[in-house]
Amino acid sequence: MTVATNEMIRPGQGRGLLDVYEHRFLLKLLVRKEIKVRYRGSVLGLLWSYVKPLMQFLIYFVALGIFLNLQRGTPNYAIYLFAGIVLVNFFTESLGNATRSIVDNRDLIRKIYLPRELFPVATVWVSAAHFLPQLIVLVGACLISGWTPSLMQLGASLLAFFLVSILATGLGLLFSAANVYFRDSENIVDMILMVVTWASPVLYVWTMVRDAMGPWYWVYQLNPMTVAVEIFHWTFWQPTLKSDQLVPGGTPPDLIILWLPISFGISIVVLFLGQLAFRRSAVHFAQEL
Predict the structure, then answer these.
(1) Which domain of life is it from (predicted)?
(2) Cβ contact 233:249 at 8 Å
(3) What is the DSSP string of 154-187?
(4) Of 53-57, 129-133, 152-156, which gets the smallest average pLDDT?
(5) Do residues 151 and 238 lie in contact, with contact meaning Cβ atoms separated by under 8 Å?
(6) Spatial separation of the C-alpha atoms in residues 70 and 50, rounded to whole Å
(7) DSSP summary character for residue 12
(8) Side-chain half-sphere exposure of 281, counting CA atoms within 13 A
(9) String of b and e for 122-143 (b: at least 16 CB within 10 Å)?
(10) Pick from 17, 194, 226, 232: CA 20 to 30 A from residue 253's CA?
(11) Does the pLDDT of residue 6 top 70, yes or no?
(12) Burial of 171 (0-12, 13-18, 19+ CB in 10 A)
């Protein structure tokens, strides 16, 4: 049997994320495998998706909401806090696991060839599976508080989720490739994850940053996570407020018209750079591992 020369592909040179789509059946298998392995021997299993963010929420609410009395100036502070936590947790889990995905699957990568991008992308999908039950809890709490969102707000929250997914995938590709050659990459990512909660208006309202930074506030808005969290607050927290409670920390100006497109542009650039770095270094993964 002969193979046409134009059908032959140099080993390790694929089409990047396009190959992930063509091998989506492998992606599903990897996602199932990751979930099964993660909760193997666990008593609570998927319930850990509820326990961890709940503990994180309680710690922040007690320390900041009660001890520092931030809830006094922020109506429905519990919903405000949890709306930011669930989105940031999705990003931190996605990026942290994506960074380790290539090294953790070294045995499989050394044995057979398959699109390497499958591994970091699969971790983002697994994190999305953990994000869903947290989102259900958030929606339930919002409904109890009289949540009345508009279709535009619901659509914006969906765009915010895609925004974070794109950003996490791009950074995950970049750092997972770097981690093969420089294991210090995990420490760098750990530091990023340590500050991301404070670098976005999760625990505080955006007006505090505006008042502190003044004309330089736009620099803060260049962080796509900031915009995504603000959209989640606009969608889930603000519709639970009464008309006389819409003062501090309302919606930042031009959030949807200006900052959301800019954030998508930044995230797409990060995805392109991450894919470029990953594709160039993926050829030597098996030898380095």
Answers:
(1) Bacteria
(2) yes
(3) HHHHHHHHHHHHHHHHHHHHHHHHHHHH-TTHHH
(4) 53-57
(5) no
(6) 24
(7) T
(8) 20
(9) bbbbbbbebbeebbebbeebbe
(10) 194
(11) no
(12) buried
Please, which residues have CB within 8 angstroms of residue 250's CB and are 6 or more apart in sequence? 238
Rounded CA separation 268/17 (Å): 13
105 closest CA partner among 126, 74, 83:
126
Can you give the length of the chain in residues?
289
- The dihedrals phi and psi of 4, each to the nearest 5 degrees, come to -65, 140
Ordered by start, the domain boundaries in the chain are 46-288
Q: What is the pLDDT of residue 54?
A: 81
CA 256 to chain centre: 19
CA distance 2 to 225: 52
What is the tens place of the pLDDT at every residue in 108-144? 888 877 888 889 999 999 999 889 988 998 999 999 9
